[in-house]
Specification:
- The protein is mainly α.
- It has a domain of about 30 residues.
- Helix content is about 35%, strand content about 0%.
- The chain is elongated.
Length: about 50
């Protein structure tokens, strides 16, 4: 990946990074374990991010 990224591209990458986080423990407790996993969870090496 290029070392010099444009600002819009950087913003899109940051958004994808935030989406790939796991569900917080307090939400798992609040929903009585009905919500455990994040459906948008993505491994950084396996799946490609189409951000342009």
């Amino acid at each position: 990946m290029a070392a010099r990224k444009s600002s819009p591209r950087k913003i899109r990458l940051i958004k994808k990074q935030k989406q790939a986080k796991s569900v917080p423990a307090w939400i798992i407790m609040r929903t009585k374990r009905s919500v455990r996993t994040n459906p948008k969870r993505r491994a950084w090496r396996q799946t490609d991010v189409e951000v342009g």
